[in-house]
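cron nightly-structures :: item 1 of 1
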Amino acid sequence: MTTTPRARRAARTAVTTSTVVALALAGVVLPTVSLPVPKAHAVAPDVEDVLVRGIDPDARQEKGALDDAVGHEHDAAAETAGDTAAVEGAETLSDVPAPEPDEGALAALSERTTTQDFMVAGVTWDEASTATVTEVAVRVRESGTWSEWQSLGIDDTDVAGGRAGTEPLVTAGADGVQARVRTDSGVPPTGLKVDVVDPGTSRADASVGQESAPAASADAGTGTEIRPKIVSRSGWGADESLSGRWPELSGKLKAIYIHHTAGTNSYKESQSAALVRGVYAYHTKSRGWPDIGYQFLVDKFGNIFEGRKKSRWDNPVGAQAGGYNTGTIGISAMGSFDTAQPSSALVTALARVVAWKSYTYGINPRGTVVLPTGGSTGSGTRAKPGTDVRVPTVLMHRTTNLTACPGQYLAAKMGTIRAGADSRRDAAIKKYGSIVPKVKAPTRVDPTSNQVPVQWNGRSTYRWKPVSGAVSYQVLQRYAKWNEGMPYTYYWREVKLTSATSITLSQSTGQSRELAVRAVDSDHRRGPLTSLARTNRAVSPSSWKRSSGWKKVTSSSYFGDYAYRTTTKGAYVQLPGAKQVRRVVIRGATSPSDGRLQVRVGGKAIETLDFGRASDGDRIFTVWVPRTSGTVTLKTLDSGKPVRISKIAVARW
């Protein structure tokens, strides 16, 4: 007979209990001992898949099969009203026409299925599916009773190799599930399934430990003085073997999202850590993400849990609001607040996290901010991609996305959360003063002419001077291909955390990159960023668009041992669709008999270069451009006079 992990754990408990009772009945007196508080340990979750294959005919006939779901995105038609302010220079979401509700057609309805015991559930499907999912709802069996349909927000966060799916649903304990899916065409997405997660148990769940902030500074604020107590990842039993590298970081924090999980509000405090483990397992094992999507989670008892790795001392990009994940963080309240009021402990905990981050990053919790709308597909943004919208600095998920999250009753507490955060932030400013980093910005060692503005070699070493008080250095980068838009400075990718004062890196051809570093002290606090280099690699000749008349020639006298040569007047090389061009850098051979080359960007002539130099040589020509985007064209002006080009780089800086 096959038993579930939960049944096996129950059996082990029963054996232990019966042994103690037997000893007592036999007259054996056991000594009284003071047991230490158990330590948390990593817990491996158990995930079960329930395949959903179209519409089950029997389930379709059941009473309530098509009842409205609690928390449907269109239950909150006026979710942005009163939550934005008209500010010149940015479109407010209250002025953005909301998309018409698209209920879609019923595409899948599973039978009521008995499963393993679980505490978290979610619905996923193939990322490559062509079906557009418009609604997902589930109901679960708890203590023998089936719940109402619960709408799950569709979260199509784009992670390479991941699966499309919904936000998670939490339960205090269930053993059955049913799913309902609507799509625009009535055709279900491929690979449709429900994942139910048994997060396992830990002896430490009943006494989850919270980590306090470092001691306050006597002379100036550091940002950690009002950091609330937080249950670390090890404290809630994260199995780090499930996590991978998700290196994106927000260099600047601009706004804070209030989120919620769907599902129950009846969980016990001793179940909170398990619920976090369940969400973590759903995001990593079911969705295929490298980590949990939220930076922080808060339970109804006021416990605050660290979500994404390093969220206690950095701003890792999460998956809290598709289209707006960069430059923001998300705090997920554990529970469903469409049907129940949030506890005062939960509201206070939310305000404490918001106050801490607001003080650290200079955010006004009662203010507004402009956020650019990203282009992630399926994220249900109210504004079109590329639109700048002005929103509150502390906002709800539903302010920018088509969802009812965080529920009507938690939405009603947003004013209380903002006010509580603002008063705590003001008190911190008065008591500790303005933020002063504990470690200074590193001083860079200036790069050489072979490193900037073009890194001519594929691999290069960049250096900085040591910083007093630093125990390590965080190296960051932002990059893009020559024909892509360069990310803003509030988006970075972590390269490495190192104790050295140099780093050696490769750089891809055609890539523009800014490399930066900041010092880190013994309490993990980051200092200010120092830009080490803004550099570019030459575009590969395979991306050049060449007219007839060019021929590849080889010689050890050419840079890279080759060049493209022509003697034809009007012969051209083009780089179509170059973005944010500031300089065009050309490297080629010259001699007294060589010809001229005209440089054009976006159809406008910028400069004419003369390759006919008094002596032969390998030359670097730099053409400054008024920052623009468009096709870069190099065109010869002379007949019978050779022009030889080895490298072309499009420089952003």
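cron nightly-structures :: done
DSSP finds seven helices and 35 strands in the chain.
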